[in-house]
Amino acid sequence: MPPPLTAPAELFTRRLHLRRPTSRDAEAIFAYASDHEVTRYMAWPRHLSLDDTRAFLAHADEEWRQRGAGVYLASSADGEIIGSTGLHLLAPHRALTGYLLVPRVWGQGLATELAQAMVGLARAQGLVRLEADCVAEHAASARVLEKAGFAFEGRRRAFLLAPNLPGNAPVDVRSYAVVLR
Ligand SMILES: CC(C)(COP(=O)(O)OP(=O)(O)OC[C@H]1O[C@@H](n2cnc3c(N)ncnc32)[C@H](O)[C@@H]1OP(=O)(O)O)[C@@H](O)C(=O)NCCC(=O)NCCS
Fold first, then answer.
1. Which of 15, 71, 106, 118 to mutate to test the pocket of ligand 1 (most atoms within 8 A of CB)?
2. pTM, whole model, 2 decimals?
3. How many domains does the chain have?
4. What is the pLDDT of residues 113-132, one digit of tens each?
5. Which residues constitute the domain of residue 34?
6. Is the residue at 176 inside a domain?
7. Is position 163 within any domain?
8. Residue 17 forms part of a structural domain
9. Distance from residue 106's CA to the centre of ligand 1 (Å)
């Protein structure tokens, strides 16, 4: 059976080149996925070795093959990988997105550009709803979602065991979505 989505393997935004990852990207991904500052609020544990990154890449490849969309790596004009985003199918009509960037490019509107690109892609793929969550205290990420046109839908209390935050207490999450019809 063909995958439900047919997202392109590469996309261009105003300043960024987005493409499906390959196994050759492991070291570049490990560089940011092992970084404390980048991963602080992520829902996945920071990578401790290249094996973690290879497992992530295998999972990402499987998602692309089964769903026809998934993780995109983002490169700047000089070709350097500076972050990632993605379109993750949750149900036939809705998907989840997220984004991360290396610290040296923060504050230039690039995360907003990534989120807007995923909204455009979700619409082009015929999806009706695109969702995104962020840890409640992560104000910069909430701001990105608002700038990209997502609406706040509610606060899920004690929802996430954020693996890279100190302590082991579940944290609140802010849920956002954009409806595309
Ligand atoms: C969060 C992150 C994606 C933001 O990327 P970015 O490219 O700097 O975001 P943008 O420039 O598009 O927009 C950031 C907005 O947040 C605002 N902001 C930044 N820090 C803030 C803070 N501490 N409190 C409130 N707002 C803040 C900025 O002023 C900007 O809003 P503005 O344009 O109205 O001034 C980036 O810091 C990152 O990749 N962090 C690590 C990974 C991560 O946490 N990803 C999100 C997981 S939910």
1. 106
2. 0.97
3. 1
4. 999 999 999 999 999 999 99
5. 10-128
6. no
7. no
8. yes
9. 7
Contact at 8 Å (CB) between 90 and 96?
yes
CATH classification of the domain holding 99? 3.40.630.30
What is the SS3 assignment for 118? helix
Q: How far is the CA of 93 from the centre of ligand 1 (A)?
A: 28
Confirm or reject: Cβ of 107 under 6 Å from ligand 1: yes
Residue 95: inside a domain, yes or no? yes
In the DSSP assignment, the letter for residue 16 is -
What does the alpha-carbon distance between residue 65 and residue 169 come to, in Å, rounded to a whole number?
Answer: 35
CA of 165 to the centre of ligand 1 (A): 18
Ligand 1 midpoint to CA 143 (Å): 7
| Cα–Cα distance, 150 to 88 (Å, whole number) | 16
What does each C-alpha distance from 124 to 1, 6, 77, 120, 179 come to in angstroms?
Answer: 21, 10, 25, 6, 13
Ligand 1 neighbour 103 (Cβ under 6 A):
no
Low-confidence ranges of the chain (pLDDT < 50): none
Ligand 1, atom 41, lies closest to the CA of 38
